[in-house]
């Protein structure tokens, strides 16, 4: 009788141990949730949607939750307040936080785009466009202090145009309302992201005549960033995240325009497939998508030059203070 009781107790203990083991395994196997906040929904960020659509985050054991938070200031506020873990936004926002003297700096760890993503759109076709033709015109620009406007002004100055003196520059229209404002008659020229530029072209309300991305040069334009405190506590998660980004970048480099458009189309339900394909081709052909996640020091210094030219830089932010390349360098070595 006693032997029987001992066996029952032993079996119960074994069952309990097995249950605990299975529970532990289940816990370890559960994906780690990462909350991403993107500054806007744009085909400019195609590699990010590829990483989601192709399951590259999932392969790394991550559950990526993507939220669009319009405006760099709002995206950064969400990151600083802990509403999101990772922000996809212009590098200049991390510099603005640094200039305010943050004790928990925001670090750039994986670059997604390496040029400006805007285009110059005219109300009428200009086959032999010359930049000096902008002088004396009404120009509908982007938000002051934002990377699009700074890259735009940098290009204009490079072309011998003083944005404040040679143009009637409009900067008080909300980012989301700029395409509609131009379509309704505001301005002779406008600086637009895609797919809005292509949509306006298709509607016959404007014509793309130049690329600010080509003219302003390579920049760490849109980068994944996180607070230093988060990165210190979650280094493994950041590495897995960067690995997924790297895999998506490699896929985008070798895939056809049609394949990329097909992969990201679910993230642009209200945009025609033809438009998505055309925009992907435009960005890919001008080298806007970063080929690897490493934030380059030369490009970082060019970013500072652009900000300095726009009068938005109190002092130059050291590369090593706001850029962490460890995760990106590891990803380049490991993800083949």
TrEMBL record:
Highest taxon of the lineage: Bacteria
Compartments where found: Periplasm
Keyword Transmembrane helix included in the entry's annotation: no
Any Pfam family matching the protein: NMT1_2
Position of the signal peptide: 1-26
Keyword Signal attributed: yes
UniProt main location, coarse: periplasm
Keywords: Signal
Stretches assigned to coiled coil: none
PANTHER family with a match to the protein in the record: ALIPHATIC SULFONATES-BINDING PROTEIN-RELATED, TAURINE-BINDING PERIPLASMIC PROTEIN
Family: Belongs to the bacterial solute-binding protein SsuA/TauA family.
The name this protein goes by in its record: ABC transporter substrate-binding protein
Source taxonomy: Bacteria, Bacillati, Bacillota, Bacilli, Bacillales
């Amino acid at each position: 009788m006693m032997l029987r009781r001992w066996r029952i107790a032993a079996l119960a203990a074994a069952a309990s141990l097995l249950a605990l083991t299975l529970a532990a395994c289940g816990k370890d196997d559960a994906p780690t949730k990462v909350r991403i906040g993107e500054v806007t929904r744009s085909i400019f960020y195609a590699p990010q949607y590829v990483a989601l659509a192709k399951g590259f985050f999932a392969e790394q054991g991550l559950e990526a939750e993507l939220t669009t938070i319009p405006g760099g200031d709002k995206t950064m506020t969400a990151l600083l307040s802990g509403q999101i873990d990772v922000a996809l936004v212009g590098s200049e926002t991390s510099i603005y936080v640094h200039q305010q003297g943050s004790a928990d700096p925001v670090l750039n760890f994986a670059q997604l785009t390496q040029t400006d993503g805007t285009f110059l759109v005219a109300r009428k076709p200009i086959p032999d466009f010359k930049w000096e033709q902008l002088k004396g015109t009404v120009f509908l620009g982007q938000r002051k202090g934002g990377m699009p406007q700074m890259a735009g002004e940098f290009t204009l100055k490079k072309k011998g145009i003083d944005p404040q003196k040679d143009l009637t520059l409009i900067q008080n229209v909300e980012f989301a309302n700029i395409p509609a404002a131009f379509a309704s008659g505001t301005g002779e020229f406008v600086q637009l992201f895609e797919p809005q530029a292509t949509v306006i072209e298709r509607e016959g309300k404007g014509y793309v005549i130049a690329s600010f991305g080509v003219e302003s040069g390579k920049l760490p334009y849109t980068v994944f960033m996180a607070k230093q405190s988060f990165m210190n506590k979650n280094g493994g998660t950041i590495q897995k995240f960067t690995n997924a980004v790297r895999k998506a970048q490699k896929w985008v480099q070798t895939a056809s325009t049609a394949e990329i458009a097909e992969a990201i189309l679910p993230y642009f339900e209200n945009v025609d497939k033809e438009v998505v394909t055309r925009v992907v081709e435009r960005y890919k052909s001008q080298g806007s998508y970063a080929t690897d996640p490493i934030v380059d020091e030369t490009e970082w210094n060019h970013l500072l030059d652009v900000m300095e030219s726009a009068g938005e830089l109190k002092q130059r932010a050291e590369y090593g203070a706001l850029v962490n390349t460890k995760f990106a360098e590891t990803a380049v070595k490991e993800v083949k």
